[in-house]
Write a structure and sequence with these properties.
It is a single chain. This protein has a five-stranded parallel beta sheet with strand order 9-8-7-10-11. It folds into two domains: 165 residues, no CATH class; 119 residues, 3-Layer(aba) Sandwich (Rossmann fold), CATH 3.40.50. Helix content is 34%, strand content 10%. It is built from 15 helices and eleven strands. The radius of gyration is 21 Å and the shape is globular. By secondary structure, it is of the alpha/beta class.
């Protein structure tokens, strides 16, 4: 969101952590019961700290400034409060969606809102927002299949996952290792046999150096203790630039993590709890880091459009055709060859 806003300097841009005004959820937040959710806890603290560090205006829950906005740009349509639905809205895909669990399918069958799935499986699929910016043709098809009007969806690519090649130039000190990016499965109330997963990582590594990067939402002390027990020689990182670690690795192991797309774009051998061939079809397009500019252009056109919201996509085909050129040019994810010397033996 910061990248997109930086390309709209002639507009006053404000930011907010994802929020809800539902009284029961607000009560849960105040009691600390939602600290492992994106709405509160460490996620909100880091978000607020980021805004402060970069001098960005924080209008949390529209409760600070009381503005009426010309446009709202969201990275989730699972929770879009009624006060935001009165404005023009653009959804920007923020990463991978969670797997469709039995519970998620059941709640969808009952017609309940997507957040009842208790994960991000239906993010991008609520059809609430006016325009949807998708990472790839694969995700455009998924969002359409699961509920969003395909006419609303534009394949723009997504910032942070559209220029994997640039990550090869980094100062992370290790090379040629097997990289493991864990997920917060247990912290989001799902079952996981972490010792078995660690043992499988050791097997895949086959004697090569093993580096674990923990998900920021994990209980770090527990995760580190388990790794020390089952992979005592592995290095463990709780902070750092995961994408650069992936750029230097020889092989990537993930669970339910969007960073697998960095490995795919860079031509790494990857492992995931998702079907890898399906991930390749979903992988974000690589457009040299221009996704934020494409999305900002779309936002600008929509802000300046004076007609009714539901007429924008129908009456501005030139703008959408220009932006959607990525759909025609990038039906397959881009791979980048491993440069000579980057992956020496462990």
């Amino acid at each position: 969101m910061h990248q997109i806003a930086s390309l709209l300097p002639d507009y006053d841009c404000y930011f907010s952590q994802l929020y809800t005004k539902h009284p029961l959820v607000r009560l849960a937040i105040s009691l600390g019961w939602a600290d492992r959710m994106i709405l509160a806890g460490e996620f909100k603290r880091k978000g607020d700290a980021y805004l402060k560090a970069h001098g960005l205006r924080n209008d949390y829950a529209r409760s600070v400034y009381g503005h009426n906005y010309d446009l709202v740009v969201l990275c989730s349509d699972l929770i879009v409060t009624p006060d935001l639905r009165q404005f023009k809205t653009v959804f920007v895909q923020e990463g991978m969606t969670d797997p469709l669990t039995r519970w998620a399918r059941f709640t969808h069958w009952l017609g309940l809102p997507g957040y009842w799935a208790a994960n991000t499986a239906y993010n991008g699929s609520s059809n609430i927002c006016d325009i949807y910016c998708a990472a790839s043709i694969g995700y455009k098809a998924q969002f359409g299949r699961m509920g969003t009007d395909p006419a609303k969806i534009v394949v723009t690519g997504i910032p942070n996952y559209d220029n994997a090649a640039a990550l090869l130039n980094n100062d992370f000190p290790y090379h040629g290792y097997v990289m493991v990016a864990t997920s917060d499965i247990r912290e989001t109330m799902r079952k996981e046999d972490r010792p078995a997963f660690i043992r499988e990582c050791v097997r895949i590594a086959g004697g090569r150096r093993l580096i674990f990067k923990l998900h920021p939402n994990e209980e770090k002390e527990r995760a580190i203790a388990e790794i020390r027990q089952w992979a005592p020689s592995a290095l463990v990182y709780t902070e750092g630039k995961t994408e650069e670690m992936i750029a230097n690795c020889e092989e990537l192991i993930t669970q339910y993590s969007t960073v697998v797309y960095i490995g795919i774009a860079l031509g790494k051998k990857v492992h995931s709890y998702f079907d890898v061939e399906q991930l390749k079809r979903l992988a974000p397009i690589q457009n040299g880091g221009t996704s934020a500019a494409v999305i900002a252009q779309l936002c600008r056109r929509y802000i300046e459009f004076k007609g009714p919201k539901d007429e924008f996509l129908r009456t501005t085909r030139t703008a959408i055709t220009t932006i959607s050129v990525h759909e025609r040019e990038s039906a397959i994810y881009h791979r980048y060859p491993n440069p000579e010397g980057v992956f020496p033996s462990a």
